[in-house]
Amino acid sequence: MSEPASISSGIASRYATAVFELAKQEKKLKQLEKDVDELDAVLNTSEDLRSLVTSPLYTRSQVGQAIMSIARSMKLQLTMVNTLALMAEKRRLFVLPNLLAALRARIAAEKGQVTVEVISAKALSKPQAVTLAKTLKAQLSMDIELKSTVDDSLIGGLVVKVGSKMIDTSIRAKLNALQNKMKEVG
Description:
four-stranded mixed beta sheet, Peroxidase, domain 1, alpha+beta, single chain, Glutaredoxin
């Protein structure tokens, strides 16, 4: 992981821990989950919001006023509103996507769920996805949410990512390993 990405993840993780713990104490995890989903949807669809949180051209007060207006119009819970205001004041809104991902992961863990990213050469059929989810559930003892994507360059096989662990059974990885062994011999 590059240094700036690591710094962003660290900042987001600290904010996420604080927001999550406050929501848990106040028994408002469902509302927090709703807030995260809504903020994520708006962030993904609004170029203006993405510009607001990443551009250094706006002043702190402009960003603060805009983010407070957005948060209030979305009817976010007070903890989230205050966190966004603090992040704007400290010029930390650039970590908002990481914050939302970290909050989503903490909420899922609290519910006994884990999101598993699966990358395959071809789209998984419904029976394949169900079988994979059942196998992973048995191994991890958690409810599984599969997030599937397709990457033609894998040629065949799967890449499965669970948290920081990755299992790469793709043909591309096997060919790369074989190529490296052949270089060592010759």
